[in-house]
Amino acid sequence: MPQDENPSTGSPSSDPGTDTPAPANVAGGIPKLPPLDLEAELAQDGPTRTAPLFDRRPAALKNPAELPEPGERKDLTEAIYERVADDLSWLEKPVPSDEEQAARQARKEAHKKKVRSRRRKKRIAIGAAVAAGTVLVLSLAWFAYVFGGLSRMPSVHGQTGASTPGTNYLLIGTNPAEPVEGRAARAGWRSDLVNSDLVMLVHVTADGRSTYVISIPGDSAVKIPGHGFGKLSDAFKAGGAPLYVRTVEEVTGARLDRVMTLDLNALREIVDVLDGVVADVPAGACDDPAGPRRFDGQGALDYIALQDCMPRGDLDRVARQQSLFKAIMRGALDGGTVTHPFRVNRLLHEGFSHLTVEDDFSYPDMLGTLWSMRRMRTSNTTFLTVPTAAAQPNVTVKDVDYVRIDDAGAAELWQALRTDRIAEYIALSGIPTT
C-alpha cells in the first residue's frame, strides 16, 4: 500500500508503527529550510520573534507596534526646522539711514585711501632705495675712474712763513719731452722735484674770485737754508722734499697750504681730449713764429720743452708754459667742456692720473678744492713771472745756467702775495702778465 504524502511538502510520511521515525523535509539526504513567511514574522511580538538573517531595517520598521504616537517624538532635523521657522527675525535686517550709509561709505573710502597711501609710500620707498643704490654704485665707479691713478707723497707743506689770506698751492712738474738724457716717461714725484721743469705758485684770493699763477724759473738762483745759493733742484738733492718746500716758503715768506707734483704727460692727454688747443706763442723762436698756433698733445709738450734755440733759455720756457696753460683753460673752461659730463670726466681722469698730492690731502678736501675753483676762467686768472734782473737775467757759472732774481721786485711781489693784494701790485708795478 502506498505511503501517505505530507500535504505541505509532498513527501511520504513516516510509518506510525515503526520505532524510529523517518526524518522530515529530507530529499536526497540534504535538509531543507522551511519557507519564510514575512507577514507571520512581522505579526509576532518584537521581543519573542526571531529576526531574519541580515535584516538591517530600522527598529521602528521592524516592529510597527513600538512606533511612538504623533507628537510624542520628533526627528532632530524637523525640530530645528520648526524652531527656525517660528523665529525668522534674524533674517530681517534693518535698513540703514542715509546718514549711516554716508558714514559707512566715508569709512570705506578712508580705508581705501589709507591702503593706497600705504602702498604708494611702499613703492616710493622701494624706488628711493633702488635710486640710492644706483647713485652709490655710479658714484663709486666715477670716484674709481677719476681718482684711481692718483699718487701720494709725504706731507711737507707749512714749515715756515706767514699764514696769508687766500690759499697757496705749489705745483712742480717734469716734462718728459725735455732733451735731457736719462729721463723716464714717469719717474714719480722725486723726479719732478729733481728736474723742476715747471714751478708755479698758485694763489687763490680769499674771496675765491681771482687766481694768480706765479712762475718761478727752475733755474732760479735762490738761497737754500743752510746751504747757500743754488737751484731748487739743489735743495732737493741736499735735503729732500722738506728742504725744497722750506726754501720756497723762506723765499716767498708765505706758508704753503698744499704741495703737488705733475707729470706733464697730463698736458699731452688733456690737449688731445680737447682736440687740440690754440696757444699764443709769445716770441718767435725754434721755428715757431709769434702769434696764435694750434697744437696737438705731443706738439704741446715739445712746445714747452727747454731748447738750445731759445734765446732767453728758461725764461722763454716759462713764457711758453704760461701760454699753453692759458690755452688749455680757454679750451676747457671757456669752451664749455666742463659742462660736458663725459669730457670733463676724461679731463679729470687724465689730470689726476699724472698728479701726486700729499698724504694729508684727503679726498673730501680735493673735492672741496675743485668746487672752490668752479669760478675759475681765463678772465679772472692771471699768469706772471717772478721779477728777474733786467740787465743780465741769465748767467752761467761753472757750465751751469742760472736765472738771476730781482730781489727788490720779488720782495714787493711776495709782500703783495702775503697781503692778498697782487692785483694792486700788478697795477702799480706794470709787471708783464698774460
Describe this structure in words.
This protein is α+β, with helices and mostly antiparallel strands and 434 residues long. The chain contains 13 helices and 15 strands. It has a seven-stranded mixed beta sheet. It has a two-stranded antiparallel ribbon with strand order 1-2. Strands 7-8 form a two-stranded antiparallel sheet. Helix 4 (98-147) crosses helix 10 (341-353). The chain is elongated.
Write a compact overview of the structure shown.
This protein is 41% helix and 15% strand. It has 13 helices and 15 strands.
Helix and strand topology:
Blueprint lengths: L25 E2 L2 E2 L6 H6 L15 H4 L13 H11 L11 H50 L3 E3 L13 E8 L14 H7 L2 E7 L6 E5 L6 E3 L3 E3 L1 H21 L5 E6 L1 H9 L3 E5 L9 E5 L1 H7 L10 H21 L6 H13 L1 E4 L4 H10 L8 E5 L8 E4 L2 E4 L3 H12 L3 H8 L5
Parallel strand pairs: 3-12, 4-9, 6-13
Antiparallel strand pairs: 1-2, 4-5, 5-6, 7-8, 9-12, 10-11, 14-15
CATH class of the largest domain: Alpha Beta
Q: How many extended strands?
A: 15
Report the sheet with the most strands, covering strand number, pairing sense and barrel closure.
7 strands, mixed
Helix content: 40-55%
Mean pLDDT: 81
Structural class by sheet pairing and helices: alpha+beta
CATH architectural category of the largest domain: 3-Layer(aba) Sandwich
Range of strand content? 15-25%
In the CATH scheme, what's the topology name of the largest domain?
A: Aminopeptidase
Shape label: elongated
The run of helices and strands is EEHHHHEEHEEEEHEHEEHHHEHEEEHH
Major sheet strand order: 3-12-9-4-5-6-13
